[in-house]
Design goal:
The protein has two domains: 169 residues, Rossmann fold (3-Layer(aba) Sandwich); 202 residues, 3-Layer(aba) Sandwich (Rossmann fold), CATH 3.40.50. By secondary structure, the protein is α/β, with parallel strands linked by helices. The two termini are 12 Å apart. 36% of the residues lie in helices and 21% in strands. Helix 1 packs across helix 15, helix 5 packs across helix 11 and helix 6 packs across helix 13.
Amino acid sequence: MNILVEGWRGINHSYALTNQWQILELIKTEKLYFKDIPFFSKKWDTNKNFSGLDKKKSDIINEIPITNDKQTFDITYRISYPFNFNNYHNSKLLYIYATTEYKYLNKTSYINNSIELLNTEEKIFIHTPSQWSKKGFVNAGLREDQVVVIPSGVDIDLFKKISDEEKKLIKKKYQIKDDEFILTNIGAMTQNKGVDVLIVAYGILKKKYKNLKLILKDQSNLYDIKPDYLFEKIKSSGFNDKYKIINEEMMKDIKIISDNLNFYEIRDLYSITDCYVSPYLAEGFNLTPLEAAACGTQIVVTKGGSTDDYFDSCLGYQIESNEKKIDNSYLLEPKIDSLIQILEETILNNSDKLKNDRSKFVHQNYSWTKVVSKLKEEFKDKLK
């Protein structure tokens, strides 16, 4: 197949990263061409917001030939935001990568078409990574068969278990003692991530478990959002009035990382983490817990959302939640009591004996090679 990719590359936005990981697999067997789409924000660039990929991988992606207007293709694959639903494409089929975090397709999130017209298109398909996200497009009016669910994946050559000696060196770098228990969350500090729920749970448990530490890696270089506002939000909350969560002792053991990290540095953070916690409210897929699990780290994620697609008992635990509808949007309300109970009763006081099992599970089922092979099968099947 010859495939035109219209999208983002070179930065660390989740769509651009998904695009780049997929490209690295597709290019092994298919002929690719590229059309760069302007970034959503004029502030983003490949220097300030670099992808984190090593030079070899970046060079492969950057050397893909640019298309010209006269070329025709088997597949046009679009991956950028807002979603471009324009039905003009110089190819046999058009696929658009898109997600609905809140199981709802907001009209401001797409351009150049209407849902009513898009619904009638027989050669245009949506690629989304979870059943939760698919329901958003179907709720908006797209056909069930028009929305294809193929998950995101993990680079298993990178995200894997490392030696205890390597972990000791990484802990030394971050000034972490051997007897300290590390909770971690990586990603944007937007409301849907539920990081405030994690901070509250950490603050409550910190009173009893003095060796508890929390690492937060934000995406302030993309979104200009740092976790300070979360601490202020919690500080003025009823929870803080009752439990006095925000205090000097708990704050001194929170490490906040705002710098861009390459993927080896991110792998290092996953590897020294005792439990990766993602009490999210709404996600299109939520890849970081899966990457952490590939490194052998146990994960705790919200039950009922997009992570249900990949969750297995060997990976860790699920936070009980309630699903809530607000206008046309849906979100989950993870229960703080459930999160605290999981951390205290099943993680903090028990040894983790499933590191090998969970890494093996992710490697066998969610490598980029495996998930992109499903994408290629989808393309070929629809081209028949």
